UniProtKB/TrEMBL annotation:
Gene3D superfamilies: Winged helix-like DNA-binding domain superfamily/Winged helix DNA-binding domain. Residues 13-91 form the Winged helix DNA-binding domain. It comes from the Bacteria. One of its GO terms (molecular function) is DNA binding. InterPro entries: WH-like_DNA-bd_sf, WH_DNA-bd_dom, WH_DNA-bd_sf. The keyword DNA-binding applies. Keywords: DNA-binding. This is DNA-binding MarR family transcriptional regulator.
């Protein structure tokens, strides 16, 4: 079906996009905990989204431990909206 995005469609990546669509940015640990997965799994899924241009990762320096922050890019927000619309169209067609 047109509009379905294979990068976003994977369950953990879809959950990441859904979560990030509701916030400006989120810290890696929050995303990992929301998914209920190991660091390596969350990191791999974020990397796939980053490589596709859908997620921006930042590690601002400052005091204490450096944390990784993730946010949807404008392209990521558009791709997520299109994917959700395609899923809704698929459901409505039944």
């Amino acid at each position: 079906m047109s509009g379905l995005n294979e990068v976003i469609h994977a369950p953990n990546r879809l959950r990441i996009c859904a979560f990030l669509s509701t916030v400006d940015q989120a810290e890696f640990g929050v995303i990992r905990d929301m998914l209920g997965v190991a660091d390596s799994v969350a990191s791999k899924q974020l990397k796939v989204l980053e490589d596709a241009g859908y997620v921006a990762l930042a590690k601002p320096t400052g005091r204490g431990r450096v944390k990784t922050w993730a946010s949807l890019t404008p392209a990521g927000r558009a791709a997520y909206r299109e994917h959700v619309a395609a899923l809704q169209a698929l459901i409505a067609a039944e």
